[in-house]
Structures are given as structure tokens and as C-alpha cells.
Amino acid sequence: MASDLPRQRFVLDTSLFITGEIREDDESLEDAVLRLLDLVVTARLELDISCYVPPSIHDELTTMLRDRDVDEEVFSRLDTWVVRKSPDRYGVTIPADIVYEFIDEMSGRVDRGLRVSEEALREVEQLDPEALAAEGDDYRTEADRILSRMRDKYRRALRQGVLDSREDFDLLVLARELDAGVVTEDRGIVSWADEFGLRYVRGGRFPTLLEEYLRATGDADDAGDATDG
Fold first, then answer.
1. 3-state SS class at 183
2. What residue segments make up the domains of the chain, in order of their start?
3. CATH 3.40.190.10 fits domain 2-92+167-222
4. Tens digit of pLDDT for each residue in 108-117?
5. What is d(CA 198, CA 194) in angstroms, rounded to the nearest whole number?
6. Between the CA of residue 102 and those of 34, 97, 223, what are the distances in Å?
7. 118 burial level (CB within 10 Å; 0-12, 13-18, 19+)
8. Could you tell me which of 114, 119, 128, 110 has the C-alpha nearest to residue 146?
């Protein structure tokens, strides 16, 4: 039945595997990832749906999973059924308009970051030096708390909802190269997938999407058996 369907490819983001959106009830992260990979296996065997990750995301993902002490079976299935492929950074073309828009976006974010810093400085200026001196032995002074809030606001101003890493860019370039859908929970990647003209699926919806594809072709019952035996 796979031959009746157009070839589907997906490029997977780290956030797909880590998000709680893919878990059922009290399911652990490890069980949720194994169930997801079972679906990936069945979709590959029955529907010729291929899933990819760039090496940079593979490294990021495996580091996060190891930090969470998941079983080696997860890594074995991941390496077997999710194709690791470097994006063709020299061959894939990106419209100049997208680059201009990215520059404008970052310029605006830098301005917002400066305003956050200025607000924090004004708050510190209003502090009573004698009160600060009295807090000297405390673990965190009021100035420390202001700086902590500034870091959070600054991080949101500069990084939230924007491409902020090589991994993000690799994901989009590879998806453009393969004419693949992007699977992510990252709002910045979703936003720029639109700019790149790419299909995208929210990570939390991806297991359901695969199940619906399999159900439509009569293979849904095989999803749990693809790697048995």
C-alpha cells in the first residue's frame, strides 16, 4: 500500500523526543520514546516513511537522553531507524529575502535586549547602598535578584521564537534539501519553517499522525509488533 502514497520524509528535532506531549498518562520518557520509535519503524517498513536527523541534532539528542538515563535499546533503535544525514550547506540555496528578514529580526531583538539591560541598571541604581551592605552576608542580595530577572528577560528577548543555534539551522536546511516535513515543538523553528516554505508538524502530534497514516492503510495494528521477536 505504500506505493499508493507519495513518499514522505520528516526531519526530527530534539524537542520531539523530550516533550511531555508525546507521553500517554503516566508514561515515562523512555517508554514514550520507545513507543515513538516503534511507530517510526512500522511507518518505514509499511509506508516507506523516512525520518532523518542532522548529526548536530543527533549529538544533542543523545546527550540529553543519556542525561536522563534511558536504556541502551533507545539508542540502538534511534541509530537503526532514524537516518543521520548532514545537510548540504553548500548546495541548498536560501532566498536572500529570508536572510534580510533574519537580520531585521535579530536587530530588533538586540534592541529589546538593550532595553532589558537598561531597565535592570535603573533598578539597581534605585537600591539603597546601605541596605545592600547589610545584605552582604546573604546568599543572594536584591541586586543579585535583579540580575537574575534580567538574565531571564534578556534570554527571552534574544532567543525565544528565533533560530538561535546551529542545530536549528541544520534542521531547516536538511528539510529544505529533502523536501521533508519538520517535526518540532520549538516555536522558533516553526516560525522559520514557514519562512522556508516547509511543512511542519508539532512534535506532540507526530505519533498520532503516524498512527493515522498506518490506520488509513490498515497497518495500525502492526505498530507494536514491528520490532518484536
1. strand
2. 2-92+167-222, 96-159
3. no
4. 878 888 888 8
5. 6
6. 36, 9, 41
7. exposed
8. 119
Among residues 183, 140, 181, the alpha carbon closest in space to that of 17 is found at 183
Of all helices (H) and strands (E), which one includes residue 2? Answer: none
In the block, residue with C-alpha cell 517510526: 40
How far is it, in rounded angstroms, from Cα 194 to Cα 12?
16
Which triple of cell numbers denotes residue 64? 540529553
Secondary structure of residue 181 in the 3-state scheme: strand
**With a threshold of 0.90, does the pTM exceed it?**
no
Overall size of the chain counted in residues: 229
> Measuring CA to CA, which residue among 46, 58, 63 is closest to residue 8?
46
Q: How wide is the angle at C-alpha 210 spanned by C-alphas 195 and 160, nearest 5°?
A: 35
Find out whether 61 and 33 touch, Cβ atoms under 8 Å.
no
Residue numbers of the chain with a pLDDT score lower than 70: 1-6, 130-140, 159-162, 219-229
Give percent of the chain above pLDDT 70. Answer: 86
188 and 164 Cβ atoms separated by less than 8 Å: yes
What's the grid cell of residue 63?
546527550
